[in-house]
Amino acid sequence: MNAADARAVGELLDDFARLTEPGPGVTRLAYSPLEREAHARFAERMQALGCAIRVDEAGNTIAELPGTDPDARAIGTGSHLDSVYEGGRFDGVAGVVAGMELVRLLVEGGEPLTHPVRVVAFAGEEGARFGQACLGSRFAAGLTPRPLVDELVDRDGIPLADAMRALGFDADRAATARWDPSEWAVFLELHIEQGRVLQDSGAALGPVDSISGSTRLSFTLHGRPSHTGGTPMAGRADALAAAAEAVLTAEQLATDHAHRGTRATVGRLEVSPNSITTIPGRVTFSLDVRDVDADRQRSATTEIVSRVMATARRRGVGVDVRLIADTSPVILPLWVRNALVQAAVSGGSSYRVLSSGASHDAQMINTIVPTGMLFVPSRDGLSHVPEEWTDASEIAVGVDALVAAVRALDAQ
Ligand code: HGY
Ligand code: MN
Ligand code: MN
Ligand code: MN
């Protein structure tokens, strides 16, 4: 079996990177025409390699390479093809490209596996547009009941169900995308680390032991808008000053010694009327709390909410809080992680087991199918920005380990 071809991997990455809205980095949003075009490119190439293609009602695309035993459970791999706003070209795409290169190597190697191999491009993994992450894989895992879909609206007021319908997908039938766990043996996701542990430790690969959970809230603070010149400082109800205190409250709580490992971020903030001569009347902001410890994740969230409420009361500002999404951390099955460790060792690649600060499709799929994740390095740990970078040669090392793990799991 020949080794993964870094040049071929690089060309696929470049091909997907061209599918973006204008502007810095890559913007290929969840349930957008660009995401569908990327899925179509993926399907086309996989069909040319002899795979059967299925697109489900949630927009996930599954390419299946038959094995010699049609009754054997499938070995799955893949990731997502959507991006955040002005994101990088590797987040998600690296895992889909790795699956594409895996199938090319299996086909060209001429030795079919016993198990069918399914490469999956999940739809809507990024929560950047609708707030909830991993939409496609959550449908596959049966984690998104229909009523939840109606709570998801993007920043332009477009409901998720409308965005799906515009692409030909019926949210009322998305439940048909649910996987039958008995069809799957294992699922492996290769992904960029989106942190800098591998770079700092010099390890080429990162088998993942746990994936952070995330609790996402939307706050709206209601102040008293008025003239910036005619209104004395005393007695103001300035929604933005209250929000500024809330942002620092979240940062301060996540950096205290009791919450080491928690990450709390206000990534979006909108001010109204956003005018230089009016005291801000209303501020809406997001809060994203992440942790590999479920209790600490939820207790940090509760603590931040209560401190923001106290700030608002003291400032005479009203507060509305809405839960957008709440996903628990997961510990991935040891036997799958060990298959990835063994694959790294057999390929002579250095590795370091680590946890994932980001959430992933693997987290959702792990609720129904034994799942593993394999990280490849992110330069300086940057991700969700145009500067995100991983060399194609580093991804090729990940593909070689993925091939070794798949072949070992196939032989079991
Ligand atoms: O937000 C995340 O952690 C992932 O990139 N969806
Ligand atoms: Mn991702
Ligand atoms: Mn991401
Ligand atoms: Mn992810």
TrEMBL record:
Superkingdom as given in the UniProt entry: Bacteria
Q: Read off the Gene3D superfamilies from this record.
A: 3.30.70.360, Zn peptidases
Q: Which SUPFAM superfamilies match?
A: Bacterial exopeptidase dimerisation domain (SSF55031), Zn-dependent exopeptidases (SSF53187)
| UniProt keywords, alphabetically | Hydrolase
The molecular function terms in GO held by this entry are: hydrolase activity
- One Pfam annotation reads M20_dimer
Record InterPro entries? Amidase_Cbmase, Bact_exopeptidase_dim_dom, Peptidase_M20, Peptidase_M20_dimer
What region holds the Peptidase M20 dimerisation domain?
212-312
Q: Does the keyword Cell inner membrane apply?
A: no
Family, similarity comment: Belongs to the peptidase M20 family.
Q: Please give the name of this protein.
A: Zn-dependent hydrolase
Organism of provenance: Microbacterium marinilacus
